[in-house]
């Protein structure tokens, strides 16, 4: 089956046969986000990246869970899926495993990634399933109108914590490093060039690439990320130039820097993807079975059981 | 049963049977020991041997929920005709321990034979109900093998004893043993064969007879295959062309995922062991979305978790095959016992109006064919399909006719041909069926679709307008009504009219048919109906019900708050007749023929009618 998907790649319409597309061709529904929402920035950078890469529309697949940011697929004119709260990563795993010809993106928020789908993120990471996961982290539940999120800082006042959040928030970078993701970056939606740089690096990475993008909720947590926004008087600290991205301990130390912390690639390693491991298993199994057809394989099995 | 069916030995054709052998049509043998004694292996070899000769076989197994140790039994019914159930009463009981003897002696029929390990068991010396034969199984095995193996070959010693008693094909058995233990090394094979030969050579004395199976009048010449229900489902999925599966280990579903994990790569496919049940079905939804019909599976507790994504698949109209190997519930319940109590969750589990297809296989053979059919229906109706198997089907071996694999094996590769313009995956067509384009499919007008769990319009866009939801809810329901109209008409076993109709589903089908045979042989008016299509129901069921005075639904679940089991409640809601009553049980064991007949007589008594056959 995977071999068939490869055939499909060969059959792809040559890019030269198609007129180049522009951002206009990639726009679908008008975003439902509030004015000033950080997610707009991520969307427009996604368009820009596609425009640059000229990936055929039908090869782009955006998959999302539930939340404000998870409306993303509706706004892109490409194949998209609006799946269940927290379960976008395993859904994307199914797509990625069967379709090496597709570029699989997952878009979601902090609730999807670190709360209801926390375990799924860990396992897609450790299995190194090829996909790019962009977590638009706004430190609050926006779609349901201001409840505490797993990344809300201590003391944050929400409808579920009127007196201020009391639970220790998740440190996304620490969590991702521990989970075994092979490309981990952090960026800020108010700095589009940096977002673009991280997205391009993530997409070029052969494996599970994940980006935490601070994305301000202007409605329910305005100013949350001003401390990292130079235009608002904050400091946008890039990962130090001498940081070794293959050094897990160094990455962990960066992650422990108090907010607003660092931005850039925290960690990257080359490890065989789940996709490559399964493809090898298929190749080896088929060779051992002398490339027998499904009918021949079943006939042999049934003869053994008769 | 042995003494009921002894034929006159003078009619034996060929005359090559051993002197003194009693000729029989079937025999029920129960092995009772502990789970580590390898008694399942004895049963497995007998089942395979029977499948390779002209005997039919059905087995029955219980295993303890504990990981190691604890009581375990295996029951084999060997017969020369069609074997429909594992047998109510045991003809030959083999007990390894005192507790095996204590717990199972009551299952031995009057006049049956008890073989006990005289090293471990002391039977009641005063009983006259059965013949007791003590064999020092432990001591003889240790003597035969010796060394460090200790009593590990006891099962093979017993297999030898049984082979002698039933005049089984020893060369064939030895070949099977050699093949089975090939990978375990020369020492193991030597021990196995040594123990088997010791058992075969042990002089059991004149205390008992040897037996020979009657060659059936309609001799089965076709080739047979022997496997358990889980194997049949796994191979059915491979034949159906399913190339992606995902699952999470849970008893008794796990062996399906183990087989698929080993087999799928040879077919170019992938099986993913997911982090949990939710991820497993999410992965399967993703792979189906990508164009490859996918499978996931589980047992009871896992289905509870899977209902979330099942609802998405209903809403998105995503084809997917879900196996539920039912066990005792609720919660962790009885992990290694049979129950038919997941019908409600399979049909109705989840929030919102979410119609889906539910099928129930009635035998191991049907496990194979129903998986092929499930794949076909999932794709044709763009719908999730649940297969309700159960622990009894999953763990029993049956011999069934070799399928025509060349004819049945399917290639269901996705269709990536261009679609559009104005492509509407959810067009409100008369048949209500959605038509998805997998990603990678070019759209001629350059407009690409999003698949969503939100209510959507015909193009797949989120749409919450009242009229749209009305239309789409009806559309998703209508496609199953269209399917219902295309299903084969329901047919009874036995005459289509009469006094009592026994209705059943899943693994109860066999014992119900045997109950019908028994009742009809006694001159009573009893027929049966197997419900294979649980949802939607086949046409013709209402008409059949009209032809009977009583409709009794026999199912392994509770009679519920209002006196009917889960299928009975569904049928009462659908056909509005108070003729429908339940014969229910919740002991975690497959139906005995006697239990069905007793249940029937009891219900008839309640309606002040004379009892039919005595069970």
Can you characterise this structure?
The complex is a heterodimer of chains A (306) and B (615). Helix content of chain A is 36%, strand content 16%. Chain A is an alpha/beta fold and 306 residues long. Chain A has a single domain (2-271), classed as Rossmann fold, CATH 3.40.50.970. In chain A, helix 7 runs antiparallel to helix 9. Chain A is globular, with a radius of gyration of 21 Å. Chain B is α/β, with parallel strands linked by helices and 615 residues long. In chain B, helix 3 (137-145) crosses helix 6, helix 7 runs parallel beside helix 8 (254-263) and helix 16 crosses helix 19. Chains A and B meet through helix 1, strand 2, helix 4, helix 6 and helix 10 of A and helix 1, strand 9, helix 7, helix 9 and helix 10 of B. Strand 2 of chain A pairs parallel with strand 17 of chain B, so a sheet runs across the interface.
The beta-strand count of chain A equals: 10
Supply the CATH superfamily name of the largest domain in chain B: Pyruvate-ferredoxin oxidoreductase, PFOR, domain III
- Which sequence of SSEs, written as H and E, runs from N to C of chain A? HHHEEHEHHEEEHEHEEHEHH
State the largest interface.
A-B, 61 and 69 residues
CATH class of chain A: Alpha Beta
Number of domains of chain B: 4
Which class of secondary structure composition applies to the elements of chain A? alpha/beta
CATH architecture of the largest domain in chain B: 3-Layer(aba) Sandwich
**Estimated helix fraction of chain A:** 25-40%
N-end to C-end Cα span of chain A: 29 Å
Spatial strand arrangement across the major sheet of chain A = 2-1-3-4-8-7-10-9
Counting copies of identical and different chains, the oligomeric state is heterodimer
CATH class of the largest domain in chain B: Alpha Beta
Mean pLDDT of chain A: 94
- The strands making up the biggest β-sheet of chain B line up spatially as 11-10-12-13-15-14-20
């Amino acid at each position: 089956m995977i071999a068939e998907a490869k055939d499909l790649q060969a059959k792809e319409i040559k890019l030269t046969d198609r007129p180049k597309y522009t951002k206009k061709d990639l726009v679908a529904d008008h975003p439902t986000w509030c004015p000033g929402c950080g997610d707009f920035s991520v969307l427009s950078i996604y368009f820009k990246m596609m425009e640059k890469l000229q990936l055929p529309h039908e090869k782009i697949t955006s998959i999302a869970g539930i939340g404000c940011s998870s409306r993303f697929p509706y706004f892109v004119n490409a194949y998209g899926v609006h799946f269940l709260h927290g379960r976008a990563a395993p859904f994307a795993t199914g797509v990625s495993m069967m379709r090496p010809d597709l570029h699989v993106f997952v878009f979601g928020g902090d609730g999807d990634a670190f709360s209801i789908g926390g375990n799924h993120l860990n396992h897609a990471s450790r299995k190194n399933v090829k996909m790019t996961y962009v977590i638009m982290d706004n430190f609050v539940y926006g779609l349901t109108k201001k409840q505490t999120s797993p990344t809300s800082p201590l003391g944050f006042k929400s409808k579920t914590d009127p007196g201020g959040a009391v639970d220790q928030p998740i440190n996304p970078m620490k969590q991702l490093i521990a989970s075994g993701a092979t490309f981990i970056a952090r960026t800020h939606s108010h700095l589009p060039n940096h977002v673009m740089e991280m997205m391009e690096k993530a997409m070029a990475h052969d494996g599970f690439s994940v980006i935490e993008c601070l994305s301000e909720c202007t409605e329910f947590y305005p100013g949350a990320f001003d401390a990292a926004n130079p235009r608002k008087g904050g400091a946008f600290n890039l990962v130090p130039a001498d940081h070794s991205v293959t050094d897990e301990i160094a990455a962990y130390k960066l992650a422990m820097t108090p907010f607003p912390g660092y931005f850039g690639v925290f960690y990257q390693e080359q490890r065989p993807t789940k996709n490559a491991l399964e493809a090898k298993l298929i190749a080896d199994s088929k060779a051992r079975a002398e490339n027998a057809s499904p009918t021949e394989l079943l006939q042999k099995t049934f003869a053994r059981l008769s | 049963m042995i003494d009921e069916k002894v034929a006159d030995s003078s009619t034996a054709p060929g005359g090559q049977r051993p002197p003194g052998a009693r000729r029989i049509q079937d025999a029920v043998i129960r092995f009772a020991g502990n789970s580590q004694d390898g008694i399942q292996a004895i049963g497995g070899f007998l089942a395979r041997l029977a499948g390779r000769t002209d005997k039919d076989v059905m087995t029955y197994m219980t295993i303890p929920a504990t990981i190691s140790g604890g009581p375990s039994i295996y029951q084999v019914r060997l017969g020369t005709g069609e074997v429909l159930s594992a047998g109510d009463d045991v003809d030959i009981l083999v007990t390894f321990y005192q507790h095996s003897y204590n717990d199972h002696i009551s299952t031995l029929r009057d006049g049956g034979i008890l073989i006990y390990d005289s090293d471990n068991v002391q039977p009641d010396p005063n009983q006259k109900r059965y013949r007791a034969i003590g064999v020092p199984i432990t001591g003889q095995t240790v003597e035969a093998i010796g060394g460090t193996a200790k009593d590990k070959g006891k099962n093979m010693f017993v297999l030898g004893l049984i082979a002698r008693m039933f005049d089984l094909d020893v060369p064939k058995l030895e070949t099977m043993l050699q093949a089975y233990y090939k990978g375990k090394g020369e020492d193991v094979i030597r021990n196995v064969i040594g123990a088997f030969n010791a058992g075969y050579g042990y002089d059991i004395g004149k205390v008992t007879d040897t037996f020979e199976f009657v060659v059936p009048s309609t001799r089965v010449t076709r080739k047979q295959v022997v496997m358990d229900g889980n194997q049949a489902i796994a191979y059915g999925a491979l034949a159906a062309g399913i190339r992606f599966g995902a699952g999470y280990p849970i008893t008794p579903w796990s062996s399906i995922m183990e087989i698929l994990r080993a087999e799928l790569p040879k077919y170019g496919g992938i099986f993913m062991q997911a982090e949990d049940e939710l991820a497993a079905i999410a992965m399967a939804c993703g792979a189906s979305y990508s164009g490859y019909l996918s499978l996931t599976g589980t047992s009871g507790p896992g289905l509870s978790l899977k209902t979330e994504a099942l609802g998405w698949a209903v809403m998105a109209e995503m084809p997917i095959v879900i196996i539920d190997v039912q066990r005792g519930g609720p919660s962790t319940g009885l992990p290694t016992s049979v129950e038919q109590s997941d019908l409600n969750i399979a049909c109705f589990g989840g929030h919102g109006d979410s119609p889906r297809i539910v099928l129930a296989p009635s035998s191991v053979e049907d496990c194979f064919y129903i998986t092929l059919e499930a794949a076909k229906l999932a794709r044709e109706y763009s719908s999730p399909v649940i297969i309700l198997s159960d622990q009894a089907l999953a763990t029993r071996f049956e011999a069934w006719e070799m399928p025509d694999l060349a004819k049945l094996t399917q290639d269901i590769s996705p269709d990536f041909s261009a679609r559009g313009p104005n492509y509407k995956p959810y067009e409100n067509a008369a048949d209500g069926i959605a038509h998805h384009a997998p990603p990678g499919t070019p759209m001629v007008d350059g407009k690409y679709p999003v698949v969503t769990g939100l209510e959507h319009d015909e193009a797949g866009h989120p749409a919450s307008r009242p009229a749209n939801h009305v239309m789409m809810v009806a559309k998703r329901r209508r496609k199953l009504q269209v399917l219902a109209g295309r299903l084969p008409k329901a047919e009874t076993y036995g005459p289509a009219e009469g006094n009592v109709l026994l209705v059943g589903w899943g693994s109860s089908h066999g014992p119900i048919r045997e109950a019908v045979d028994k009742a009809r042989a006694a001159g009573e008016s009893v027929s049966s109906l197997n419900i294979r299509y649980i949802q939607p129901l086949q046409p013709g069921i209402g008409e059949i019900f009209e032809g009977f005075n009583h409709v009794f639904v026999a199912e392994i679940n509770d009679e519920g708050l209002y006196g009917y089991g889960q299928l009975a409640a569904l049928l009462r809601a659908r056909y509005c007749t108070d003729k429908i009553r339940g014969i229910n049980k919740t002991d975690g064991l497959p139906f005995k023929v006697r239990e069905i007949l007793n249940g029937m007589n009891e219900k008839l008594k309640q309606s002040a009618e004379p009892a039919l056959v005595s069970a």
